[in-house]
Amino acid sequence: MTRTLYTLLLYLLLPFTPLKLLWRGRKQPEYLQHWRERYGFYALQLQKPVIWLHCVSVGETRAAAPLIQALLQQYPNHQILLTHTTPTGRETSKALFSNQDSVSRVYLPYDVPCAVKRFLTHFKPAIGILLETELWFNLIAGCKLRRIPLLLVNARLSEKSAHGYTKLGRLVSEGLQSLSAIAAQTPVDAERLNSLTASQGSMHTNNISVVGNLKFDVQPPQDAAAQGQRLRGLLGTHRAILLAASTRDGEEAMIIDATTIANVSSLLTIIVPRHPQRFNEVETLLQQRSLHYQKRSNLHEPIADKTQYILGDSMGELFSYYAACDVALIGGSLMPFGGQNLIEAAAMGKPILIGPHTHNFADITKNGVLSGAVIQLQNTTELREKIEFLFNNKAKRTEMGKAGLNFSHASTGATVKVMQLITRYLTA
Fold this sequence. Notes:
With about 425 residues, this protein is of the alpha/beta class. It contains 18 helices and 14 strands. It has helices at about 5-15, 15-25, 60-75, 85-95, 115-125, 135-145, 160-165, 170-180, 185-195, 225-235, 250-260, 280-290, 320-325, 345, 360-370, 385-390, 395-410, 415-425, and strands at about 50-55, 80-85, 105, 125-130, 150-155, 180-185, 210, 240-245, 265-275, 295, 310, 325-330, 350-355, 375. The strands form two sheets. A seven-stranded parallel beta sheet has the order 3-2-1-4-5-6-7, with helices on both faces. Strands 10-11-9-8-12-13-14 form a seven-stranded parallel beta sheet, sandwiched between helices. Helix 11 links the parallel strand 8 (about 240-245) and strand 9. The chain is globular.
């Protein structure tokens, strides 16, 4: 595919984008706010030179937090501009940097040339930083035209995504070649990106380096342990607590099926859906099963012993949930969604269970298993068995928790390397 054809297809889809926003706004009214920004019209005025980072949603925003803190410290005369695609990403950046006047946030415009031009003309970024695998080809071309250094950092590319990008041919290879530099998470990611860069027979090799994963540099909030201890007091210190974190559609039913029959004394399961718009859906499922549950948002006094489930319908408390639990089950992995980040659970020293579908986090999962911090299910029918095994084996839980701490600490350092890369291009 050429960029001309790509652009034409986007312009054909553009008239339907208001309908998409209205549709999503039914469940998440925040999609109806700041909608003009998605077309490149901005009210925000910034007076200082802009360092721009694109963090699609919650995961990318949290991963970028150590990098943003380092940028604030090293470049106090610059303004950090965060762009997001989802309202939850935007809300996460507000929560993380609510006391930072030097951090602003807007939505990234749709990737049509007119909207991209308005965005780049309005903010005039000194440098752009894309997180993970965000490849917007008109945006990349616009930065190249204006000689704005554009970096792809914390870059990861699963085998499945690489296969999909290969079908786009020259569009992808030219886009990757137009980036100033790529900082990949692992050698495998770097190899796949390099292969795509040269997929059309080009002799050009992009400036690809391997720096590790920024997510390992994310530090738990200072009060996470204390907040977790308070939460544990409400849940019951005598309870066996399983946290199912970042669950996706269809997984909650599987978790309920396993935990309702698991042979674990006083088992309490906390279910935290990945997307807030699904809180009501999961609550309906608990009601349909006639299960005893309470919502975190209504949890102000110690729960009754008959309570079987807690619906984690609060935002920004994941570290506290990890601190309060005995075992963490990572969602997005029981069904073929590609998995979710297990690093936060490891950093809190918790034994980790993860499902068989982890292609988006394959390297982290593999290394977590090798370190002894993670047990990966070969299939979902093992879920009940592994839950019983861990809760009936305290020594194993302790051993895995210690391994998780060692695993997370040994993998830090990506922020320093990315900062060196940014300094090279920002100074130039």
